[in-house]
Write a structure and sequence with these properties.
Elements: H1 2-32, E1 44-48, H2 55-71, E2 75-79, H3 86-93, E3 101-103, H4 107-116, E4 128-136, E5 138-143, H5 151-160, E6 166-169, H6 175-187, E7 192-195, H7 199-208, E8 213-216, H8 218-226, E9 230-236, E10 263-268, H9 274-288, H10 291-297, E11 303-305, H11 310-331
Parallel strand pairs: 1-2, 1-3, 6-7, 6-8
Antiparallel strand pairs: 4-10, 4-11, 5-8, 5-9
Helix pairs in contact: 4-11, 6-11
Length: 336
């Protein structure tokens, strides 16, 4: 009887200890386990690897307020520029994978940098895809006095004046620079590459006649096209013409199969669970499904919205990276 009593007392004691421990630890478990019913329960840091005022920064500051309101939690934009975006992305990629740090890389960072830098501080392929926000369309334009009216005529004109037809860009590795190198490789036309510090400098140089050609976002070029100061020869917008320039053919229509544009998307650090990925993807798809929202916020920035699933982003980024590899080789890009 004494033995049975002792065993019973011991069992009761152990059960009490177990319950006490569980009650003590359960709040910790609740805090480290993300569920769809609790996420997010604290502020979220969103790393933009570019300065404030750039297109990625502007777009995410437009997209996040509805989410903050819905979730009743602040989304803090953290601008960390440098090294063509690698500094900010390295910081984001190495953050805790708890759903409370999210990254906003561009196609340049994800697709081009891995081929232009001898060593990347992080592996873009390890990031967790969330959603493809959109792609930045491009317009190829010339000064109104340049005697060409199509991309083919521009190529032929450059062939007749090797190295003297000037084409402005925002520097090595920019979209314009890559187009110049690609056209040279595919057609033999040689252009004079002239880097500028800002988009405004480029477009004003073309308007003034100091520069022959440019590649910039259509929204920057459109006012000068309407005033007759520049001619837009083609837009790089996939297979579809732009609603803002319906009379202008796409580069593909002009017979040049190059569709390489910068893009923006959201990624989480490696190891982030599925719940925050689903939350961000679901709510942003809802926002971008509103045609009025797109017309007001995407069209003025010359961005074609994307959306879709994380798998869609993964597939898109993989194809884009293959194109970037070809362009980086053609242009012999070296950023370090």
């Amino acid at each position: 009887m004494k033995l049975e009593t002792t065993i019973g007392s011991l069992s009761s004691f152990l059960m009490a200890v177990f319950v006490l421990c569980f009650c003590t630890l359960s709040p910790v478990v609740a805090q480290t386990t993300i569920t769809s019913s609790t996420y997010p329960f604290r502020p979220i840091r969103l790393v933009v690897p570019y300065p404030a005022g750039t297109v990625p920064d502007v777009m995410i500051r437009i997209l996040t307020p509805p989410l903050s309101q819905l979730w009743d939690k602040p989304i803090v934009v953290d601008n960390r520029a440098g090294a063509n975006g690698n500094i900010g992305m390295d910081n984001c990629a190495k953050s805790p994978p708890d759903g409370y740090t999210i990254c906003l890389p561009t196609g340049v960072i994800m697709s081009l940098n891995p081929y232009a830098y001898a060593r990347m501080p992080f592996d873009p392929l390890e990031l967790v895809p969330v959603i493809h926000i959109g792609t930045l369309d491009q317009a190829i334009a010339v000064n109104a006095n340049v005697p060409v009216n199509s991309i083919k005529e521009l190529v032929d004109y450059a062939k007749s004046k090797p190295g003297s037809v000037s084409w402005g860009s925002l520097g090595m590795g920019s979209t314009a620079h890559l187009y110049i190198e690609w056209l040279h490789a595919k057609t033999g036309a040689t252009f004079l590459h002239v880097p500028y510090k800002s988009s405004t400098d480029v477009v004003l140089a073309v308007v003034a006649g100091d520069l022959n050609a440019l590649t910039l976002t259509p929204s920057l070029v459109e006012p000068y096209m309407k005033s007759g100061k520049v001619k837009v020869l083609a837009v790089v917008s996939g297979k579809k013409r732009l609603s803002s320039m319906p009379q202008v053919p796409t580069l593909a229509e002009a017979g040049y199969e190059l569709d390489f544009r910068n893009w923006i998307a959201l990624y989480f650090p490696r190891g982030t669970p599925a719940e925050p990925v689903k939350a961000w993807n679901t709510e942003l798809n809802k926002i971008m499904a509103d045609p009025n929202f797109i017309a007001k916020n995407f069209v003025p920035q010359s961005i074609t919205p994307a959306g879709g699933t994380p798998e869609d982003l993964l597939s898109f980024a993989r194809a884009n990276r293959q194109t970037a590899a070809e362009l980086a080789k053609i242009a012999n890009l070296k950023f370090d």
